[in-house]
Amino acid sequence: MEEIVGLCKRRGFIFPSSEIYGGYNGFYDYGPLGVELRNNIKQAWWRDMVLRRDDIEGLDSTIIMHPDIWKASGHVDGFSDPMVDCRESKLRYRADQLFFAPVIVAGETIGYVSVVECPEQQEIAEKAAADIKRKAAKQGTLEPIVLKDYTESKPEEYDLVPSPATGKPGSLTAPREFKLMFETKVGPLADESAVAYLRPETAQGIFANYKNIVDTGRVKIPFGIAQIGKAFRNEITPRNFIFRSREFEQMEIEYFISPSADWKTLHREWIDTCIDWLVSIGLPREDISEDIHPEDKLAFYSRATTDLMFQFPHGEQELWGVACRGDYDLMQHQKHSGKSMTIFDEASKEKFVPHVIEPSLGVDRTLLAVLTAAYTQDEVPNDKGVAEKRLVLKFSPKIAPVKAAIFPLLKNKPELVERAQALYKKLQRRWNVFYDASGAIGRRYRRQDEIGTPFGITIDFDTIEKDGTVTLRDRDTCEQRRVTEDELIQFLEEQIDG
Ligand code: ATP
């Protein structure tokens, strides 16, 4: 992760927000390359989920909506995470991410260990337990360390579990519910009636507009509404770079189906569609797995939820949630707004409030997954044929921030420069391309490899003196071949727009 964060800063993908003021925890800015990558991910999603499907319509709703929407959805009362404070260090933890265990030697509890959730948590806890046993000079067998999360702690344990910040017990509070929605005030009144919220998800904007879209008359069951937009959550512990931040972006679909539809099959189809899409933007299939939520852990309105998990640098974590939410949300809005949410289904001649399948994906998490998958260190021959280490981002051409770099072989030959500039201007009308004339050609390739530009195009003397062909270099194999301009454009079209 550190290497990815370093590269993102150095090459202008992602910066900590407000960096000149020391940064601001949980907020990130996207630099010149980051914004391109981000836009390409969003465009690829929109193209595949909305434009290339007949059954999905797009939407762009406001970030601040009528506060009653958040009452109806259950967010005002229920959208919170359990937190625990360390009174001494003033640090705050999510209780379900703080793990602890008693240290039991020969049947006697001689202390507690605690650890913040991480892939190595078991080893860390076992090592800490062995230390406690040694310091206590306690003879006997150390019983296996069984970690539980802090939401399962008992009141008599609060004072015994050490704070991960200080390593000492006595400073942790009981778990308490912490509201995740950011509040603001709308209008000139300063009282409670002015309280509004920054949306913590884009989904409710879809439910709130469902009736408008149905009444516009373009849709028939089953159909979906898709939205891409910012969401805000006052996360207790934003961490792991852009994986969990306080301002992020979501790409969500509500897919409305008949209550009598075979929802299990449709759910499965959506899971497969989502996996295929992730693979299409360059994530390795073997790094994606399914986490099926057990029935007894589902929210009361949910029929099934499967999270698509990805191998992030900090472990296997949720990337995309695909939930079957029944008719809960529309029913809630029908009740709170007093407006009917029924639809007339021409096919069955029935009237009903549809059920919904909700694939919900974060733009920033997708971007981190894409960076993780693309980040590669390998060895390639340099100008003199000697093997040299290189850092390369193997982005799919579909989402790469820069699609191709155009190089005149030599910068002091006007005829080469002119020809390269002309090709550059031509390609620039369609794609984000880069022109670079400075330095040895090998160095120029390497600079592009590091930002993941899939194709290098070199204009040399053969181009101007012979047949007009250019050299096309492939980033991953470093193979070069000569192509005509027409062949080049057709190739780029297939690879980028494909
Ligand atoms: P988590 O359990 O990781 O907090 P969640 O289950 O609360 O996530 P959802 O409410 O299902 O997440 O949100 C849908 C998607 O939005 C997630 O799969 C993720 O891609 C993205 N997402 C949610 N919270 C954040 C965040 N704080 N930062 C970045 N992306 C997020």
Q: Low-confidence spans: pLDDT under 50, at least 5 residues?
A: none
Please give the count of helices. 13
End-to-end C-alpha gap: 31 Å
Number of extended strands:
26
Identify the overall geometry: globular
Structure class:
alpha+beta
- Strand content is 25-35%
Please identify the oligomeric state: single chain
Radius of gyration over alpha carbons? Answer: 27 Å
Cofactors and ligands: adenosine-5'-triphosphate
Main β sheet profile: 7 strands, mixed
- Spatially, the strands of the biggest sheet line up as 3-12-13-19-16-15-14
Helix content: 25-40%
Mean pLDDT: 95
Task: Show the helix and strand layout.
Blueprint: H1 2-10, E1 14-16, E2 28-30, H2 32-51, E3 56-59, H3 67-72, H4 75-78, E4 80-85, E5 92-94, E6 98-105, E7 108-116, H5 121-135, E8 148-149, E9 176-179, E10 183-185, E11 195-197, H6 203-215, E12 223-232, E13 247-257, H7 263-280, E14 288-292, E15 304-312, E16 315-326, H8 328-337, E17 343-345, E18 350-352, E19 355-362, H9 363-374, E20 375-381, E21 387-393, E22 404-408, H10 414-428, E23 433-435, H11 441-451, E24 455-459, H12 461-465, E25 470-474, E26 480-483, H13 485-497
Helix pairs in contact: 2-9
The chain binds adenosine-5'-triphosphate.
The site of adenosine-5'-triphosphate (ATP) has 16 residues, from strand 13, strand 16, strand 19 and helix 9.
